[in-house]
Amino acid sequence: MNTSADLLKELRIDRSAPPPPSNRRPLWIGLAVVLGIAVVGGGLFAASRGRAVEVQVAEATAIGNGGASASVLDATGYVVARRMATVSAKITGKVREVRIEEGQHVDAGYVMATLDPIDADAQRTLAASQVAATRSQIGSVQAQLREAEANAARLSSLVRQQLVSKAQYDQAVAQRDALRAQLATAQRNASVSSANLRIAENGVDNTVVRAPFAGVVIAKAAQPGEIVSPLSAGGGFTRTGIGTIVDMDSLEVEVDVGESYIGRVKPGMPVETVLNAYPDWKIPSEVIAIIPTADRGKATVKVRVALKQKDARIVPDMGARVSFLEREQPAARKRTGALVPAAAIVERDGKSVVYVVEGDGDKADVKAAAVTTGRTLGDDIEVLAGLSGGERVVLDPPEKLEDGARVRIAPGDAESE
User: Could you tell me the keywords of this UniProt record (predicted)?
Assistant: First the structure.
């Protein structure tokens, strides 16, 4: 057996056999497959680009140091009113009507209360009667005087003709002069009675208690039927006032500053006042004056501070904390900016960038804003340029977050807004 020869025959190529079937596909089928893959990939890429990214946001807080200087001294005091009056009647009398209530605003001259006017009316009626009596007396004396003057003139011609005695003439002249004196007395009595009438009318007017100036009633001290008097009559049954009025436009703060620190306070110095009732409300104020006297017991000097804001929430006797500030900086040195969490600032291409959220809901997107940073204040960073305050910035922005990308605010942040 020639095994080697048989093996060589098997390795020989049979030229007469038909060619095997081809496994290659047409070219256009391959192109279609490639195009389909590209379309699907592009759609998936576009879908991934349009999908909103869930982010957490925080609001940038506006800050500025224009005029907000450091405090050189802190002190405590109370709100006081420069114009405050307990209004009383000028006379003693029984209250007939009270027309005020606590919290009511009154104008100058407003009728706060009235007293029983019976006695005052009677006095005025009597004075008016006296005026009428003196005036009628004047008319009677004037009539008699006219007759006496005519009689004296007639006897004057007769005495020259020696038809009557000189004694009769002298008697007529004396009667005329006496009536002239009576007329002058009657006229003076009429003037006095007229003055008494005016006093009686003032007495009636004194039964009406009016507001001396415009303000707000903070206390109502009398009721109808009570006796009021400008002076205390002793005991607990006589009131000395109708009510207390405060001019709210005259409110200011009085603080006691220690003698050791009074040299830091100057008239016109800027002040920041915070009421104990509203600790988050900073009221711009100014030093009015330093009272030139010291309290020996407390070793303090009283300082008057004017409030530059008028508000209904400010009432007398409120406690206040006052911070005396340095002088305001010139306008050229004023800076403004914002305060943002440190997690909102990231580095992109060597620049500090924050992503600001614009729009709401499904239409929200982000805009990259380059910022200039300043001081680090706790967990926040001062932004000197690029933000003005009030913007919503993304916290911990992802690396793949791009300018103009759609975002969706996390539910927790949406509720906090």
Answer: Coiled coil, Membrane, Transmembrane, Transmembrane helix
What's the CATH fold of domain 71-82+249-328? Elongation Factor Tu (Ef-tu); domain 3 (2.40.30)
* Interior angle at CA 20, CA 16 and CA 21, nearest 5: 140
How big is the CA angle at 334 (ends 333 and 340), to the nearest 5 degrees? 130
pTM, 2 dp: 0.52
Tokens 């007395």 — which residue?
185
For the segment 185-226, what is each residue's pLDDT rounded down to a tens digit? Answer: 889 988 999 999 999 999 899 999 999 999 999 999 889 998
* Residue of 301 and 17 predicted with greater confidence: 301
The three-state (H, E, C) secondary structure of 163-182, written as one string: CCCHHHHHHHHHHHHHHHHH
Confidence of residue 416 (pLDDT cuts 50, 70, 90): very low
CA 305 to CA 286: how far, in whole Å? 6
Number of H helices, E strands in the chain: 5, 25
Q: Specify whether the backbone of 235 is left (phi greater than 0), alpha (psi in -120 to 50) or beta.
A: left
Closest among 208, 177, 37, 249 to 114, alpha carbons compared = 208
CA end-to-end distance (rounded Å), the chain:
99
Q: What angle do CA 321, 322, 327 make, to 5 degrees?
A: 160
Cβ atoms within 10 Å of 22's Cβ, excluding its own: 6
What integer is the mean pLDDT of 88-113? 92
CA distance 142 to 148: 10
Question: If phi over 0 gives left and psi between -120 and 50 gives alpha, with beta otherwise, what is residue 143?
Answer: alpha
The pLDDT of 290-301, averaged and rounded, is 92
Domain 85-116+207-246 has CATH 2.40.50.100: yes
Residue 294's pLDDT band, with cuts at 50, 70 and 90, is very high
CA-based torsion, 223, 229, 233, 234: positive or negative: positive
Q: Which of 3-7, 303-307, 324-328 has the lowest mean pLDDT?
A: 3-7
Q: Is CATH 2.60.120.200 the classification given to domain 53-65+333-416? A: no
Lowest average pLDDT, out of 207-221, 260-274, 325-339, goes to 325-339
As a whole number of angstroms, the distance between CA 219 and CA 216 comes to 9
Q: Say if residues 365 and 359 touch (Cβ distance below 8 Å).
A: yes
Write down the domain spans for the chain: 53-65+333-416, 71-82+249-328, 85-116+207-246, 118-204
